[in-house]
Each structure stands twice: as structure tokens, then as C-alpha cells.
Amino acid sequence: MSAMLEVEALDAFYGRAQVLYGLELRVQKGEVVALVGRNGAGKSTTMKAVMGLLARVQGRRFFAGQDISKWSPHSIARAGLGYVPEERRIFTELTVEENLEVGRQPQRAGAPCWTPERLFELFPNLAELRRRPGGQMSGGEQQMLSIARTLMGNPSTILLDEPSEGLAPVIVEQMAQTINALKDEGLTVLLSEQNLGFAAALADRAYVIESGHIRFDGSMQSLLEDEDLRQQHLSL
Amino acid sequence: MDLLLQQLLTGVASASGLFLVASGLTIIFGVTRIVNFAHGSLYMLGAYLAVSLIDLFGGGHLGFWGGVILAMLAVGLIGALFEITVLRRIYQAPELFQLLATFGLVLVVQDVTLLIWGPQDLLGPRAPGLTGATQIFGLRVPVYDLFLIAFAPLVLLVLWLLFNRTRWGILIRAATQDQQMVTALGVNQKWLFTGVFFLGAALAGLGGAIQLPKGDANLHMDLQLIAAVFVVVVVGGMGSILGAYLAALLISLIRVLLITNAQLTFGGIAAWQMELVSMFLVMALVLIARPWGLLGRREVASDQRSGTPEPRLRPADATLRIAGGLLLVVLLGLPWIVGSYFLSVATEALIFVLFAASLQFLMGVGGIISFGHAAYFGLGAYGVGLAVRHWGMSMEVALLAAPLLAGVGALVFGWFCVRLSGVYLAMLTLAFAQIAWSIAFQWIDLTGGDNGIIGIWPPDWASSVTNFYYLAGAICVIGLLCLRHLAFSPFGYTLRAGRDSPLRADALGIDVRQHRWFAFVLAGVFAGIAGGLFAYLKGSVSPETLSISLSIDALVMVLLGGVQTLTGPIFGGALYSVLKNELISLTNYWRSILGLIIVLLVVLFPQGLAGAAESLRGRLGTSR
Amino acid sequence: MSRVLEVRGLAKAFGGVRAVRGVDLDLQAGEMLALIGPNGAGKSTCFNLINGQLQPDNGSVRFLGRDVVGLPPRRIWRLGVGRTFQVAATFASMSARENVQMAFLSHHRRLRRLVGYAGDAYKQEACDLLERVEMRALADRAAGVLAYGDVKRLELAMALAHGPRLLLMDEPTAGMAPQERRSLMTLTSEIVRKEGIAVLFTEHDMDAVFSHADRIAVLDRGEKIADGRPEEVRRDSRVQASYLGSFGAQS
User: Fold this and answer.
1) Contacting residues of C for A194, CB less than 8 Å apart
2) Residue B307: which residues within 8 A CB-CB, separation 6 or more?
3) Separation of alpha carbons C167 and C152, rounded Å
4) Tens of pLDDT along B138-164?
5) Are residue B41 and residue B120 in the same domain, yes or no?
6) Domain-located, residue B159
């Protein structure tokens, strides 16, 4: 196995305030890795930093063997690293089909290839809403569209930022099944989650992040067994 | 009834050109968030280029339309080139810095046009096959009007297809909403922006070319049009193309009705006198009813400001006090050092420093962007002018009329402005400045119209260059110290609180809107004092003191100096006004040189001169 | 004990989605009430309806017996309601002390004064308050560069400057380290109990909720499904199911 995504000594800042401190992350090809932590622990910031969306970041990031530290976000995306933001960031004025079009990128070797039709099979709810503007969809539908839109770029790896946030339990379960299906397609996933149960159902490995520091790095199983660690760094 | 119908048709026809230019501006703003002041210049270039090209090709069908299309493409390329060479370097710069660059372009284009085509107006060629008039329902209607009436909806349709049926258009619509997300999905935003500038500029060029058969190409059409275009874009809702069309129709119809019914009077005011004012009044009314324009979307006000927070204000330290003292000594001794010409240049510089400082108070301390600060400078000047002309007041009394009239103006205009925020607010300030300008321009009985009011001289004791320098200098220095103190007063802190976090200010019992209104009045009063002094310096008052270009001058001074430093306007104001004066005396092409200097400064120092000085000081400090 | 806050039948819908449906809440002086629930349950909406940032479609909010629906936040503040924000909001360009001085200036209605230096006004009072929230050493630090936990203390000090009867705290400990959390909540509860201030807070951290709240109200999909003392709520099966969710049950 080779590392798909590797982050070394990642520091990030908002203005003058430092929010991430020397993060080290490693995601192997085909793996689902969870980044768990509380609200405000630095999960979303990590995702944005990896994607090159923050103004001030230090440290090195590698994707598929290439040093992407100085790349612009669009080059990173074109290299096959997809990003699904926490706030979903659907283009509300655009229809479902148009949202997908924005995400479309050429097919890539070694990554699953997606078309709108295939995505509608994966997300049957969306199929009925093709012409619906993104702003008139429920939270769950928007989350699915956000994932589908990123998949249109045919990524080999995706950064999934809090996919279960604010969704009804039924939808959360559906979301988990979908992510498992993506894993079966061979997609590499870095998943950030507040909901440990959800993360546990999907991920092989986990990092625990707290106040911008990585506090735990190991298998999901050992995290679940470590009562103290969970008490200290996670909400539930 | 027939007459009315004819007027309506004329109005709809004249809306077309306005719409083309406005649609370009709205597209550019929607995606890049840049208010392109040079849009009128691109329109002007379109007109001149088309005249030359059509002349070159001969006036046949192919020649005319080929010329129009080539002019459009050429202007599009100019826009794209400007984006690639200048704007691309400064997207990360503070808000409004891009606006400075576009203003630099305005100046350069004015001179280049003058250089190539000369000062005389060029009559537009006729469109072959579309000359003369035809009968519709028994009305004589110019054929070209009918063409224009049909052309705008056609362009609207093409744009609609472009934005809804092509991948590029869909990307543009997506980027209009969330530019960063589009980038994160693998779209190269650089070329998207360049493309947008090409399209927007080409539309402006087309607008300039297409209006030729009904008008001409002249050197004033750039700034003349830009105000109307801003109005259309804001009334329609920034970013909305259909909104721009509806607004262009609305504005054009009202103007045509007022012009063609010029003799009608409303409460003693003739219709033609309201023509210019009308569109700004419409804009003010629309924005009060719909703060985001007819079809605009609410700008999502976020309390989490991106980027670094505004710097802290610190009371003057020893260095600054010594520097200030030295400066004061130099100012006092200046009459012994320089001749009377430079002394009057220095007087003017001091007046502009006060003017710039009043705008900095509004923008830096209050966080309120104004594109129309000349309104209060000009009202101050007219306060003096009217007091002298109609009541024969002495200078000592007339100078009090300046802050009074400016303050009242700011009280009225500010009441509307503080109801909005961000770029809409800025546009509304520009509209109010234009209202003031229109009144001065068209209410001839009161203001003398274009000729202004002359014969405003200081009394004997203050009439020598040196004495007036001391008088104006003393007032300006006191004004500056007052403004500086205000920034540290409880009121100044309250303003900064509202700027830093409106949410927190509100949750702390602060009525942000009311305080901003008050800030408007204070800034207006100080700008008015500067305007009043300016009237006595020049011996006359003209609508120039209310013009857009003076408003922009003030913006340039403040932005060059650094919005967030209290000393910024002193450097920015003095530097800019002296530089401008010197360039004017040196060369006829001072505009382009000034424009190039502005563009160069913006590209070299994207943090402003003050920011550059700050980082230089930082570097020197650490290396020691 | 006197009733400080009385909320009845509070309801709000956002285009079809009923975010809050008929919520009742009561709060006595000196009492700390935690409002909890899974993400999206309507906590923040509820909060913003009470503090005046949003207008309810239905229902009443009475503060000290007075109906405050329709009043803007600044008027509600004047009546004696202080608040802290989820994403802490302070005046970033001012020092910590100046932030508190702003609160005093507003409290004493001195906001419009044009003469005098704001930096000298209520300086001692501001320092004393910063002392109380254990921030004295950071008084001259710019609020924009303070650590998260310190910003929350600063917000607390700003609220106290007005002598509030009710304190609304939206996720006061979000994003803080456990120790910071505990000390902030301990500090808060000490102060409010001493002053008899009622506190309504939303919170994700169950530790903070169960060790400091006198009562807990649980929201789920816009409805209040439980309201009672911590141990009662902890045993409530509906709360278990909704809050921890089907996935939570596995872990």
C-alpha cells in the first residue's frame, strides 16, 4: 500500500491566531480514515488547509506522491483530490444537473468514473430533482448533491467534512451506506466527524483532533476501547 | 396618446445601449466583486474604435457591422489584457484596491483617446439600411430605434443562452455565488475571471458602437455614462442581467418623458430640470423599498470577517508627536521658503488633506465606504457661493454656511445611506453626489448652472496668498486634529465597534445605524469646511466640486495613504494633490501619467503606501 | 425565587421547514438551564428568537414579565439580557480592556460623546471586571489575537458590565480544551450564582451540561421532548434515542 495523502507538520492560521499545530496525517490508498473531534477542534480547518483554501498555511502536503504544498486549489482538485465542504456550499441558483456540471472533470486512470446517470443511481433522491434549484432542497438532499458534485470530478480521494451534520437519523444511515458503497468502488476517504458512532461504522483508522493538535492516531477499534480518551476529547 | 407612445418607443430604444453597458458591469461585479470604474471608458473606446473601423471599411453593410463587431472584440481584448496584466496581481489586496486600478485605467484611456482621435467630437456613421423613419400605427418612428428596441432583448436572449446552456456560463453563475467552491471543484478561476472581463468589456464596447448612429463619440462620454450605468446596475440588483434590463428601461423611460415634456412644470420646477436628478431619485426610492435592487439577492452579511482584523488605533507616540511638530514648523515657515505659486499649491494640498481625512473618518473609523464624498465638499463650496451671491455675506459668516449646508446634505443623504451596507451603500452615496451635481448643473437660477458662481474673494485682510495660506492652513490643521481626536473619543470607539462586529455592537445596546448616520454628518461637516475654503481659494464655485472625479480623487487619496491609518490621508492627500497640480502644469497628458502612477503604486504596493511603510518599518526593526 | 424568563409556544419556520415548534421554557433567577439536542434540533433558532435576532412566527417571550417579542437585540440588552456568541464576537481592533470599556460606555449611555478619550473612561471598572474573569494580565492584548477561551471570558466580562439579570450563552465552551472548559463553566456558575443571574445556555459538551446545569431542556427536531433535573433527563428514553441516535447506540 502507498500513501495517497500525506500531511507533514501542518500549521494553519486565521489572521494572526494559530489554529492548527504541526498536524501529521497519512491516508493509504483505498482506506477510509476518520478525523474526529469536537466542534471547533480544527477538523474543517484541516480539510481546508489540505485543499489549499487557507491564506496562511505552513508545512508540507503530498498527494499521490506529488508535493502539493504550493499548488492552487484547482490544481489539487484536478490531480484527483475531491473536497466536500461542511456547509455543503451548494450553488443555490443552479439546478441539480447544473451543480453536477460545475464539478465535471475528465476521467482519470485509477479512479472510478462517474456520470450524472451513475450518480443518480447512487443517490436515487437526486434523480427526481434534476431540474430543482439547489436552494430548494432539504439539508439531506443538499448533502447528497454536494458529494455527487465532487464525485463528478472523478476523484481518487475525497475529503468529506462532517457529512452527517444536521441530518435526520434515517438520512444519516443512508449516508453511511453511500460512503460504504464509495469505499467499495475503491475511493480513498478522509472523513471528519463529530459523531463517533457514524465514524466508527465507516472508518478503519482514526485521528482525534483537539484544539488544533492531533491527540490520537490508531485503529478505530482501539479508539472505541479507550474510554478515557473518548471522555477527554470527544463529546458524547 | 400618440405622442406618449412615440415617447415610450424612444425611451425603450435608448434603454438598449444603457443595458448593454450595464450588463457588462453587472457580470464583472457578480463574479469578481470588482466595481469597474473604467467601464465607461471601455464604452467610449468602443464608440471611437467603431467610428474609425467603419470609416476604414467604408460605410456599407459589411463595413458597418464588421466595424461594430471588431470594435466590440477589440474592447473585449483590452478588458482581458487589463485583467491579466493588472487586476490579476491584486485580487488579494484589500477591498477597493482594484477599484483604484480601474480608476487609473479611466485616466489613461482618456488621454489615449485624446491622443489618437483628437479633442473634437466625432459624428457617428449611419447604419446602412436602417436609416430614415417608418410608419407604425400612424406614428413616424426612426428605423434605427426599432432596431435598438429589438436588439436589447436579442442580446438578453443570447446572454441567457450563454449562461444557461453552456458550461462556461454555468461556471460563471456558480462563481457568482461561491467563487472558492468553484475553484475547489477544479476550475481554474484565473481564466474564468479573464473570460468574464472579456465578456463584460466587449458588451461595453458593443454598447458604445451601437449607439453611434444616434449620437457621436466624444471625450466626456466615459464619466457621463458611468453614473447612469451604476444606477442601472444597482436598481436592477448587482449581478442580475435581467434586472439591468428592467432598470435600464425604467430609467430611460423616465428620462425621455421628462425631456420631451420639458415645458411641464411641477411646483415651479420644469421637467427638463429634473431629468438628471430623476434617475438618482428613482435609485434612492428603489433601494429604500428593495435594498438589493429589483432582482438582486441579499448580500449575506457575515460577522466573521475574512482576513486580518483592522489594526488597533494607538495614541500618538513620541516619534509621531515630534514628526507632527516638525511638520507644523515647516508649514509655519513655508511662506519664507517657497514662492506664491507653490504656496497656493500648498494651500490646496492642505484643503484636500482635510477633505481626505473626513473621508478616512467615514471609511476607516466608521467602516462606511463612500463613492460620493465630493457631495459634501461641493455643498460646502456652494454654501459659500450661495451665501455670497444671494445674501452678500462676508467671508467670516459665509464660511459658516459651508459646514452648515454640507451637514444638512449629509443629514438627508446619510439617512438613506445607512439603511444599506457594502457596495450598495457606496453606490447610493455616489447617486446622492450626482443628485447634488445635477441640481447645481440644472438649477441655473440658483447656482449659475455650468458656469457656477464667480467672484468669491476673501476680504482684504485675508486676500494675500500668504495670509490666506495661514488662514486656510490653521482651519485645516484644527480640523485634522479634531478628526483625530474623534477617532479616540467614545463616539469614535462606538463607530469602530460597529465596524468590527455589528452583531456584538447590537448585543451591547449600540444602535449601529444611528451612529453611522451621525458619522455621516460629522464627515460631511468637515468635508464642507474644506469645500468652503476651496471656494475662497479659487474665487469661484462650479459643479466640478461635486463631480464624480473629485469623489474618486478623495478615494484615491485615502486608499493610497492607507484606509486604516489616521496619518494616511495626510500623506495620500498631500502627495496626490501636489502631484496632480505639478503634472497639470508640466504636460497636457497629465491624466495618463497620473493614471499610470496609480496603477503602478497599486501593483507595487498592494497594501497601500502606509501598509508598505509599515512592513518596511517591521523589516528594519527586525534586522536591527 | 422570581421568574426571569418565560417562553410560551415559541414557533418559527424557514420556508416550509419548521425549525422550532411550540417550545415553552421557564427560568428563575440564579438558575442555569441548559438547552441541548442534536445538531439541527433548533437550539440556535430558539436562542436567536429569544435574543431578538429572529422574529418568531408564533408564541411569546417574556423577560421579567415584559413581552420582548419584536424588540431589536440592543433594546433587549438594555432591559438586562447579556449574551455570548457561539462564534465569539468581540471588537477585534480593540484591546480586551477597551472591549469592556465599550460595554461600560454603553451601559452609562456615553456612546455619543465627542470629547474625552474612550481609553480613559471606566478604566478601573473594566480592569476590575477583567480581574473577576481572570483576564487582568491580558487586558492590553488585542481582542483579535486572544485565545478562544480568553475571548469567552472577555465576552462574559462585557456582559457583566451591564449588570444583567439574564445571560444567554450559545455554546460557551465550543472548541475549548477540557480544562479550559471546566474552568470557564466553574467561573461562570460561581459568578451567576453570586449575582443571582439566570443563565440559558446551549452546549454540546455533556460534561459541562451535567456538572453545571440546574435543569436541562432537550430539543429534537424543533420540539421540546424533555425538561427536568439532569438525572431525570439522563434516564429519559426518548432523550437517549434522539440524542445519541441509532449510531450513538452502537458506540
Assistant:
1) 39, 204
2) A15, A55, B94
3) 13
4) 788 889 999 999 999 999 999 999 999
5) yes
6) yes
Domain tally for chain B? 2
Residue C16's pLDDT is what? 66
Residue C15: count of CB within 10 angstroms of its CB: 6
CATH number at residue B84: 1.10.3470
pLDDT score recorded for residue B450: 84
Categorize the per-residue pLDDT at C246 as very low, low, confident or very high, splitting at 50, 70 and 90: very low
For B259-291, write each residue's pLDDT tens digit.
777 777 776 667 666 777 888 888 888 888 888
| Residues in CB range of B323: below 8 A, 6 or more apart | none
Q: Is residue B594 part of a domain?
A: no
Q: What is the pLDDT of residues A85-105, one digit of tens each?
A: 988 899 998 999 999 999 999
C-alpha cell at B338: 517657497
Same domain, yes or no: B238 and B114: yes
Domain endpoint, select from B561, B577, B604: B561
Q: In the structure grid, which three cell numbers stand for residue B202, read together? A: 466587449
The answer to whether residue B235 is domain-embedded is yes
DSSP structural state of residue B294: S
- Model confidence pLDDT, tens digit, residues B154-212: 999 999 999 999 999 999 999 888 889 999 999 998 899 999 999 999 999 999 999 99
Q: Same domain, yes or no, for B355 and B270?
A: no
- Predicted TM-score of the model (pTM): 0.85
- In the DSSP assignment, the letter for residue A6 is E
Could you say which of C175, C207, C245 has the minimum Cβ distance to residue A41?
C175
Least confident span in B63-72, B599-608, C170-179: C170-179
Are C106 and B510 an interchain contact pair (Cβ–Cβ within 8 Å)? yes
Residue B311 DSSP label: P
Q: Are residues B495 and B386 in the same domain?
A: yes
If asked whether residues B278 and B396 sit together in one domain, one would say: no
Judge if B118 and B241 occupy the same domain: yes
pLDDT tens track for B556-581? 899 888 887 888 888 889 999 999 98
Average per-residue pLDDT in chain C? 86
Domain hosting residue B397, numbered range: 345-561
**Residue B562 backbone dihedrals phi, psi, to 5 degrees:** 110, 115
Distance CA C185, CA C178 (A): 11
Side-chain-side CA neighbours of C12 within 13 Å: the count stands at 22
- From the CA of B236, how many Å to the nearest CA of chain A? 17
CA dihedral of residues C74, C76, C82, C86 (deg, nearest 10): -70
Domain contains B242: yes
Find out whether C152 and C84 touch, Cβ atoms under 8 Å. yes
Mean pLDDT of C171-177: 76
Contacts of B501 in chain C (CB under 8 A): 89-92
Residue B303 is predicted with a pLDDT of: 37
Question: pLDDT per residue over B449-506, tens digit each?
Answer: 888 898 889 988 988 999 999 999 999 999 999 999 999 999 999 999 999 999 899 9
Distance separating alpha carbons of residues B336 and B349, to the nearest angstrom:
18
To test the contact with chain B by mutation, choose from A102, A108, A154, A156 the residue with the greatest count of B C-beta atoms within 10 A, namely: A102
Q: Please state which CATH class domain A3-233 belongs to.
A: alpha beta
Inter-chain CB proximity C94 and B493 less than 8 Å: yes
- Please report which confidence band the pLDDT of residue B620 belongs to, taking 50, 70 and 90 as the band edges: low
Are B355 and B280 in a shared domain? no
CB contact under 8 A, C89 and B510: no
